[in-house]
Amino acid sequence: MKRSIYTFLTALLLCVPLSSCGYHLGGVKPAALREMHSFSVDMFRNTSTQPQVSMQLTSALTNAMQGDGTYRLAPRNKADFIISGDVVAITPRSLTTDWRDSYLSSEIGLTLTVRYTVTERMTGKTLASGTVEAESSYYNQDDINIQNTRTNALSYAARLAADEITARLTSP
Length: 172
Fold this sequence. Notes:
- Helices cover about 35% and strands about 30% of the residues.
- It is α/β, with parallel strands linked by helices.
- The radius of gyration is 22 Å and the shape is elongated.
- Helix 2 packs parallel to helix 3 (about 145-170).
- Strand 5 (about 105-120) and strand 6 (about 125-140) form a beta hairpin.
- It has a single domain, classed as Double Stranded RNA Binding Domain.
- Strands 1, 2, 3, 4, 5 and 6 form a 6-stranded mixed beta sheet that branches.
- This is Lipopolysaccharide-assembly.
Protein backbone atom coordinates (compact mmCIF):
# COMPACT_ATOMS: atom_id res chain seq x y z
CA MET A 1 0.00 0.00 0.00
CA LYS A 2 2.79 2.40 1.01
CA ARG A 3 4.72 1.52 -2.15
CA SER A 4 1.75 2.30 -4.46
CA ILE A 5 1.36 5.75 -2.88
CA TYR A 6 5.05 6.50 -3.52
CA THR A 7 4.71 5.24 -7.09
CA PHE A 8 1.66 7.46 -7.64
CA LEU A 9 3.37 10.53 -6.17
CA THR A 10 6.51 9.92 -8.24
CA ALA A 11 4.45 9.62 -11.42
CA LEU A 12 2.53 12.79 -10.51
CA LEU A 13 5.73 14.74 -9.89
CA LEU A 14 7.10 13.62 -13.26
CA CYS A 15 3.93 14.56 -15.15
CA VAL A 16 3.35 18.02 -13.68
CA PRO A 17 6.43 19.69 -15.25
CA LEU A 18 5.65 18.10 -18.62
CA SER A 19 2.09 19.45 -18.62
CA SER A 20 3.36 23.01 -18.95
CA CYS A 21 5.64 22.45 -21.96
CA GLY A 22 3.19 24.15 -24.32
CA TYR A 23 2.33 21.15 -26.48
CA HIS A 24 -1.30 20.82 -27.49
CA LEU A 25 -3.57 19.38 -30.14
CA GLY A 26 -5.81 22.01 -31.64
CA GLY A 27 -7.50 24.80 -29.70
CA VAL A 28 -5.43 27.77 -30.92
CA LYS A 29 -7.45 29.98 -33.23
CA PRO A 30 -7.15 33.39 -34.87
CA ALA A 31 -9.47 36.06 -33.46
CA ALA A 32 -11.85 35.95 -36.45
CA LEU A 33 -12.37 32.19 -36.04
CA ARG A 34 -12.46 32.06 -32.22
CA GLU A 35 -16.14 31.02 -32.05
CA MET A 36 -15.87 28.52 -34.92
CA HIS A 37 -15.70 24.80 -34.19
CA SER A 38 -16.31 22.96 -37.48
CA PHE A 39 -15.36 23.41 -41.11
CA SER A 40 -16.15 22.19 -44.61
CA VAL A 41 -14.02 22.53 -47.74
CA ASP A 42 -15.67 23.30 -51.08
CA MET A 43 -13.98 21.97 -54.21
CA PHE A 44 -11.46 24.60 -55.29
CA ARG A 45 -12.02 26.04 -58.77
CA ASN A 46 -9.25 25.45 -61.27
CA THR A 47 -8.38 28.29 -63.63
CA SER A 48 -5.10 26.66 -64.65
CA THR A 49 -4.63 24.26 -67.54
CA GLN A 50 -3.51 21.36 -65.33
CA PRO A 51 -6.37 18.89 -64.71
CA GLN A 52 -7.07 17.49 -61.23
CA VAL A 53 -4.91 19.95 -59.28
CA SER A 54 -8.04 21.41 -57.65
CA MET A 55 -9.06 17.94 -56.45
CA GLN A 56 -5.55 17.36 -55.03
CA LEU A 57 -5.62 20.71 -53.25
CA THR A 58 -9.12 20.20 -51.81
CA SER A 59 -8.20 16.76 -50.52
CA ALA A 60 -4.87 17.95 -49.09
CA LEU A 61 -6.54 20.90 -47.32
CA THR A 62 -9.24 18.69 -45.79
CA ASN A 63 -6.57 16.26 -44.53
CA ALA A 64 -4.36 19.04 -43.15
CA MET A 65 -7.24 20.72 -41.29
CA GLN A 66 -8.38 17.40 -39.83
CA GLY A 67 -4.84 16.46 -38.85
CA ASP A 68 -4.31 19.75 -37.03
CA GLY A 69 -7.29 19.09 -34.74
CA THR A 70 -8.28 22.70 -34.08
CA TYR A 71 -11.58 22.29 -35.94
CA ARG A 72 -13.64 19.22 -36.76
CA LEU A 73 -14.81 18.28 -40.25
CA ALA A 74 -18.56 18.62 -40.79
CA PRO A 75 -20.99 18.34 -43.70
CA ARG A 76 -21.39 21.62 -45.58
CA ASN A 77 -24.88 22.25 -44.21
CA LYS A 78 -23.68 21.89 -40.57
CA ALA A 79 -20.21 23.45 -40.66
CA ASP A 80 -19.51 26.73 -38.87
CA PHE A 81 -17.31 27.96 -41.70
CA ILE A 82 -16.55 27.00 -45.29
CA ILE A 83 -13.20 27.21 -47.06
CA SER A 84 -13.31 27.81 -50.81
CA GLY A 85 -10.96 29.19 -53.41
CA ASP A 86 -9.23 29.09 -56.76
CA VAL A 87 -6.12 27.55 -58.21
CA VAL A 88 -4.97 30.77 -59.86
CA ALA A 89 -1.84 29.69 -61.70
CA ILE A 90 0.82 27.06 -62.10
CA THR A 91 4.01 28.74 -63.25
CA PRO A 92 6.95 26.65 -64.52
CA ARG A 93 10.51 27.92 -64.63
CA SER A 94 13.85 26.40 -65.53
CA LEU A 95 16.03 25.73 -62.47
CA THR A 96 18.94 23.93 -64.14
CA THR A 97 19.88 23.15 -67.72
CA ASP A 98 21.26 20.01 -69.29
CA TRP A 99 25.05 20.05 -69.48
CA ARG A 100 24.86 18.92 -73.14
CA ASP A 101 22.30 21.52 -74.25
CA SER A 102 21.81 24.84 -72.45
CA TYR A 103 18.35 25.23 -74.01
CA LEU A 104 17.08 22.01 -72.38
CA SER A 105 15.94 22.27 -68.75
CA SER A 106 16.96 19.32 -66.61
CA GLU A 107 15.11 20.53 -63.50
CA ILE A 108 11.87 22.47 -63.76
CA GLY A 109 10.39 24.40 -60.86
CA LEU A 110 6.66 24.88 -60.38
CA THR A 111 4.98 27.65 -58.43
CA LEU A 112 1.36 26.91 -57.48
CA THR A 113 -0.65 30.05 -56.68
CA VAL A 114 -3.86 29.55 -54.70
CA ARG A 115 -6.41 32.10 -53.51
CA TYR A 116 -8.69 31.08 -50.62
CA THR A 117 -11.66 32.53 -48.74
CA VAL A 118 -13.14 31.48 -45.41
CA THR A 119 -16.81 32.36 -44.96
CA GLU A 120 -19.18 31.89 -42.06
CA ARG A 121 -21.86 29.49 -43.26
CA MET A 122 -24.83 31.10 -41.51
CA THR A 123 -24.18 34.74 -42.46
CA GLY A 124 -21.94 34.48 -45.54
CA LYS A 125 -19.52 36.92 -43.86
CA THR A 126 -15.89 36.62 -44.99
CA LEU A 127 -13.77 35.68 -41.97
CA ALA A 128 -10.39 35.35 -43.67
CA SER A 129 -8.88 35.33 -47.13
CA GLY A 130 -5.50 35.32 -48.75
CA THR A 131 -3.16 34.04 -51.41
CA VAL A 132 -0.63 31.25 -50.98
CA GLU A 133 2.26 30.26 -53.22
CA ALA A 134 3.89 26.83 -52.94
CA GLU A 135 6.94 25.67 -54.85
CA SER A 136 8.01 22.26 -56.05
CA SER A 137 10.21 20.89 -58.83
CA TYR A 138 10.67 17.89 -61.08
CA TYR A 139 13.37 16.53 -63.36
CA ASN A 140 13.28 16.40 -67.13
CA GLN A 141 15.50 13.48 -68.08
CA ASP A 142 15.48 10.82 -70.78
CA ASP A 143 14.86 7.83 -68.53
CA ILE A 144 11.86 9.13 -66.51
CA ASN A 145 8.19 9.70 -67.24
CA ILE A 146 7.86 13.48 -67.37
CA GLN A 147 4.06 13.46 -66.97
CA ASN A 148 4.23 11.40 -63.76
CA THR A 149 6.98 13.49 -62.23
CA ARG A 150 5.10 16.71 -63.06
CA THR A 151 1.91 15.30 -61.50
CA ASN A 152 3.84 14.30 -58.37
CA ALA A 153 5.44 17.74 -58.14
CA LEU A 154 2.02 19.39 -58.40
CA SER A 155 0.62 17.05 -55.74
CA TYR A 156 3.48 18.00 -53.43
CA ALA A 157 2.93 21.72 -54.09
CA ALA A 158 -0.79 21.25 -53.32
CA ARG A 159 0.10 19.69 -49.95
CA LEU A 160 2.48 22.56 -49.17
CA ALA A 161 -0.22 25.11 -50.06
CA ALA A 162 -2.77 23.23 -47.91
CA ASP A 163 -0.34 23.20 -44.98
CA GLU A 164 0.21 26.96 -45.31
CA ILE A 165 -3.55 27.68 -45.42
CA THR A 166 -4.06 25.43 -42.38
CA ALA A 167 -1.31 27.23 -40.49
CA ARG A 168 -2.96 30.58 -41.23
CA LEU A 169 -6.36 29.32 -40.00
CA THR A 170 -5.11 27.68 -36.84
CA SER A 171 -2.54 30.15 -35.52
CA PRO A 172 -3.36 33.49 -33.91
